[in-house]
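U., I forgot to send this yesterday:
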Amino acid sequence: MLHRPGPEIRRAIIAVPFLAALLLAMRLDRGPSRTVADAAHPGFVLRDETLAAGIDFVHHRPTFDPKIAGIEPHVAALGASVSISDFDGDGKPDLYFTNSLFGAPNALYRNRGDGTFEEVAASAGLADLNKPGEGVSMGAVWGDFDNDGREDVLVYRYGYLALFRNVGGTRPGGTRFEDVTAQAGLRRWVNSNGAIWLDYDRDGLLDLYVTAYFRNDIDLWHLATTKIMHNSFEFATNGGKNLLFHNLGGGKFEDVTDKMGVGSTRWTLAAASADFNGDGWPDIYLANDYGPEELYLNDHGRRFVLSTAGLESESKSGMAVALGDAFNRGRLDAFVTNISERGYLFQNNNLRLNEMPEARRFRNVAEGAIADAGWAWGAQFGDLNNDGANELFVANGFISADPKKSYWYAMSKIAGANGRFFEDAATWPAFGNASLSGYERSRVYINRGVAGWVDVAKNVGVTDVYDGRAVALADLMNRGAVDVIVANQNQPAVLYRDYPDSTNHWIEFKLVGTRSNRSAIGAEVVLESGDLRQRRIVDGGSGFASQNDRRLHFGLGVREWVDRVVIHWPSGTQQVLQHPAIDRLVTVTEPGR
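Result:
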C-alpha cells in the first residue's frame, strides 16, 4: 500500500529544488571584486584589423554533382574553418584556414609577432589539398600525435582524411609538413565536418575522433542516388558513421569505433571532449543536426557508454558545442548552438549547466537573449574584458543571397513532408538565388551573473553580417587579450583584435605534457583567486570546425594575486601552483613520475 508523505516531508521535497536554485543564483551573482560589465560599459572593444594584419583569406564553397544543383547552396554551405597552432614553435599563435573548392588553396598565416602575418601554406605543404578524387577541406585540428615537440595537423574533408606530420625546418617560417595519412592507417573516405584530438585511454598518445555528416559511402561529385539527405527533421539517424582511431604509437592508428561504442550516425556537426563527470577520464559530447545531442561517458578507457544526461528529450539542430565555466562554478558547461527564425522555427540555443557529478545530467538554463541568436554556428567562451567572467561570441547566418527572396517557406514545406520525400534531394524545391537566414550579425554576450546575458556586439564593434561558421580565440600578440578570429562561408575571414579594460589583470598558462601527451590536450586547470574560481580546458578542437589557442587565458578583474592553480593533467597527475605571478604567460611542465 502506498502512503502519501506527511506535510513536513512534502515541504522538505519542495524546499530542495528551491534551495538549489537559490544557491545557483548566489553563485551567479557572487563576486564583490568583479568589475561590473553591462551593455553601456562592456569593458572591451573588438576592432576589425583583418587587412592591417595582412590576412586576405576568402573562403570558396564547393560545387557538387549536377544532380543536386537545385539545392547545392544548402548542401555546400559548410567548409569555412579556422584553427590555432604555434606550428613553428616560436611562441606566437598562427592561423590555419581551410578552403572548400577544387583548386582553391588553404591558408597558413605565420605570426610575425608585430601584429602582422605572412601566408606560408604553399611552402609548408598545406595549401594544395582540394583536389578531384581526394575531396575538399572542411576543417583542421592540431596536435602532437608523435610527441616529438612539433605540432602536427589532421585535415578533415568531404573526402579522404589527411594527416600531416610536422618535420620542422632550419629557418623562421621554413617549417614543412609531410603527408603520413597512408602509413598512419587513416586513409578513409569520410564526409566530415569535425574532428577532435583526445587521449581517451590516458596512455600519453593522442587519439582521434572524426565526425561524419553525409554517409561515408557517398561521393558528392559522383552520386549514385539523390537520396542523401536526412530521414527525419527531428530524429535523423542515417548520417555518416563517426570514427574513433586509437593511437598505437610509432605513427600508427587503429579504428576502434565499434569496440568502443562511439559510432553515432546522427549527422554530427561538432564534438568536444572533457571529463564531465569528474572521474578522471575524458568523455565525448556531440552536437547533432536534426536530432538530440549525445554524451558518451568514458568507462576507464575500456569503452564509452551513451548516457541519458537530460539531452535525449530535446531534438534540435545542434551546430556547435563550446565548453566553458559559464558561471564560475569550477565546472565545464556546454553551449550548443541551434536555429531560430521568427515566424518559422524557434529551437533556442542550449546553455547546459554541468550537474553530472551529483545529478548525472546537464540542465538547460538558456533564456532571453542568449537563447535566440538566429541561425547560429560557431561559438566560444572567453574573457574578453578580463573581468574574471566568461563572455560568449556566437557567429550567425546561413545563406546570404538575394535579400528579397527567402527559402524559409519552401524549407517549412519540406520539414512537414514525409521522411521519404525530404530524404531525396531531387524532391526539394530549387534554391535559386534565395537567402536562408542570411545577413545575420554575430552576437557578443557579456555575463551579468543572475541578471543574465546581454548582447553587446554593436557596442563593442562587431557589426559584420557575413555567414559566420567557425570561431577561434587566441592571444595573438601575447599581451593578455583574447582576440577573435571568424571564418565565414564563401566570404572573407575576419580578425577582431580585442582591447580590454587596461585596469583588469590576467594570467595565461602554457602547458607541456611529459607523462601526458606533449600538447597537454585534455588538461583542465582550475584557478582560485579570492572569491573567483574558474575552470578551463586545453582543447583538441571545439566549437564548430575550429580550435582555440591551447594556452589558457584567465581574466582576474581588479584582483592582484592568484591564490592557487590546480592542474589536472590527462595522465591523472594533479599539480598545484601557489601564488603564480600575474599579468604574464606562465609555462608549466608536467611533473615526471
